[in-house]
Write a structure and sequence with these properties.
HSP40/DNAj peptide-binding domain, four-stranded mixed sheet, 11 helices, Helix Hairpins, three-stranded mixed sheet
């Protein structure tokens, strides 16, 4: 079990006010409303509440300072047991500041005092960016660090938007702190109730009385944040990665928006992509096509050797198995296709011309489609498919 002073983030000789301020900051950071579905944040929220329950009570704090955690186990002290339910925390601290106010009234819009769970502040907007990736990065997966310009939480007021969190807000007089207004109309069909967010406080139920000078009461300011992005292998052009809470910070502690990262494939020097397969165009000379050769070709994992048989025809596709891209939904992997192009010289020297003239009438250089056997042309195969 961690030291309670460490949990709150204060020194052992901290004053009660320093402990209260540190706890408020921790509760604001790990509050479930700001970290929906995050069990680790919820555990830290409970841990901070447990630590504050002990350190805010002079008698418990004295026993803890003298005997540590063992001093809280005798006599059924609550500080040693912890909280099992979030609502227990709200109930336990509902009157911590007296005068009807509590740490959760001030920070979370009255949830701890029997409110309906209305969120503090207003949520931030989502952001969307494009992330260009090479085929090599897509094939293996990658980690990226990017800088995003957005609204970030004000460091002066810890996102509260007020200069003094204990007295910087006042209840909205229009909605009486409810965050909504109701309008009742009657007609021959009966009574209708129209419920809308309060136009004065915009649904927050409170008004900033002493705004933070740095952010003018918004609880956020324009800034830049470096974000780590883990890209799995096999993503496709247009795929989205959603980073929860990485968008614009909300107003006055409202939940941050999300960041949507759209995958964009960079044009590659050597390859084109078709599904999980990658295609490479290999140009060889007439002698190489006639005699055969061992070619060195690029792959997504470096260069590799490829055997080209003698007599290969232009347009022939050679397959390099499992040299393509992985399937993001399975363990399968595509292939690398190498399309052969037999290069015909554009200009010849006098000696080369004489040599080619001597070969012109050679039987081996006279086109003979029949010698290819049952190998059909591309257009013949297409015709067979649709016939």
């Amino acid at each position: 079990m961690r030291d309670y002073y460490e949990v709150i983030g204060v020194e052992k000789g901290a004053t009660p006010e320093e402990i209260k301020k540190a706890y408020r900051k921790a509760a604001l950071q790990f509050h479930p409303d700001r970290n929906p579905g995050d069990s680790a944040a919820e555990d830290k929220f409970k841990e901070a509440a447990q630590a504050y329950e002990v350190l805010s009570d002079p008698a418990k704090r004295q026993r803890y300072d003298q005997f540590g955690h063992a001093g809280l186990r005798n006599g059924g002290q609550a500080g040693g047991a912890g909280f099992q339910d979030i609502n227990d925390i709200f109930s336990a601290f509902s009157d911590i500041f007296g005068s009807g106010g509590s740490v959760f009234d001030e920070m979370f819009g009255g949830r701890g005092a029997g409110g309906r769970g209305r969120r503090q502040g207003r949520p931030g907007s989502d952001l969307r960016i494009k992330l260009p990736l090479s085929l090599e990065e897509i094939a293996e997966g990658t980690e990226k660090k990017i800088k995003v310009r957005k609204f970030i939480e004000c460091t002066t007021c810890d996102g509260n938007g007020v200069s003094d969190a204990t007295s910087g807000y006042e209840s909205c007089r229009t909605c009486q702190g409810q965050g909504e207004v109701r309008q009742v109309t009657r007609s021959v069909f009966g009574q209708f109730v129209n419920v809308q967010p309060c136009p004065t406080c915009r649904g927050e139920g409170r008004i900033v009385k002493h705004p933070c000078e740095t952010c003018a009461g918004e609880g956020r300011a324009k800034g830049e944040e470096t974000i780590n992005i883990t890209v799995p292998s096999g993503v496709l052009e247009g795929h989205y990665l959603t980073l929860r809470g990485a968008g614009n910070a909300g107003l006055r502690g409202g939940q941050s928006g999300d960041l949507r990262v759209e995958i964009e494939e960079k044009a590659h020097e050597h390859f084109t992509r078709e599904g999980l397969d990658v295609y490479h165009e290999l140009y060889i000379s007439i002698p190489e096509a006639a005699l055969g050769m061992e070619a060195e070709v690029p792959t997504l994992k470096g260069r590799a050797r490829l055997q080209v048989d003698a007599g290969v025809q232009s347009g022939k596709i050679l397959r390099m198995r499992e040299r393509g891209l992985p399937d993001i939904e399975s363990t399968g992997r595509g292939d690398q296709m190498v399309r052969i192009h037999v290069w015909t010289p554009i200009s010849l020297t006098e000696e080369e011309t004489e040599l080619m003239e001597s070969l012109r009438d050679s039987p081996s250089f006279i086109p003979s489609p029949e010698s290819l056997g049952d190998r059909k042309s591309f257009f013949s195969r297409v015709k067979d498919v649709f016939s």
